[in-house]
Each structure stands twice: as C-alpha cells, then as structure tokens.
Design a protein that fits this description.
Helix content is 84%, strand content 0%. It is mostly helical. It has one domain: Up-down Bundle (3 helical TM bundles of succinate and fumarate reductases). Helix 1 packs across helix 3 and helix 2 crosses helix 4. The longest helix has 37 residues. The termini are far apart.
C-alpha cells in the first residue's frame, strides 16, 4: 500500500480532519448551549427589574442561578475562543505568528472563564 499514498500513513492524513471535526462540533455544541442560556439569563435578569446589589447577590446565590451563570460563562468563553481561533488561523500570516496568537486567545479564554466562574463561586461562598 505504500505506493498508493506515497508511503503516507492514513492516520496521519486524517489527523487534521479529526481536529477540524472536533472544532466544528465544539462550536456547534457551545452555540446550542448558549441558545438556551442567553434567553434564560436575559429573562431572569430582565424580569428582576431594578435590583439592588444585595438582591443581585441573593439571586446569584441560588444554586440553580449560580450553575446557570457558570455554564453561561464557560460556554461563552469557549465559543468565543473557538471563533477567534478560526479568524486568526484564516487571516494571520506567517504561521508562527498565527500559532502564538492562537495560544494567546486560548490563554485569554481560560483566564476569562476562570475569573467569571470564580466570581460566581466567590459570591455564592459569601452568601453562606
């Protein structure tokens, strides 16, 4: 079979497509999750009216609200990072700069998600 593919391993040829499918699936799943969480968040906060800071802390302190917010932040940062990675990979040259920027996008997403979820945990812990 070496002559058919020029000695190239089939698994090596499929590796980039597996990464693309994983990226595509992650983008779609995070978008689907956000399609549920964004209206929930808008409705929940919109129906609260003129909430004072203490009222907002109590709202976040409810386990279901804290979980929903944490999922929203994780999905939003993940979705944003995947989208920005595609933009960087498609439009930034040379490849070395693109690779550095993709790492920066991933790092920023992790820092943002940890900070957002950490803030929710901090508020919930302060309610105890």
């Amino acid at each position: 079979m070496d002559g058919v593919n020029g000695g190239e391993d089939v698994g090596a040829r499929l590796a980039p497509s597996r990464a693309a499918v994983s990226h595509w699936l992650g983008q779609r799943l995070s978008a689907a999750l956000l399609l549920v969480l964004v209206p929930w968040l808008m409705f929940s906060l919109g129906s609260a009216g003129g909430m004072e800071l203490d009222d907002l802390r109590q709202w976040i302190g409810r386990p279901s609200h804290a979980l929903g917010l944490a999922l929203f932040f994780l999905a939003a940062w993940y979705h944003a990072a995947l989208g920005l990675e595609v933009v960087v990979q498609d439009y930034v040259r040379p490849e070395s700069l693109s690779a550095v920027l993709v790492l920066g996008v991933r790092l920023a997403a992790v820092v943002g998600a940890v900070a957002a979820v950490g803030a929710v945990i901090w508020i919930v812990a302060g309610m105890q």
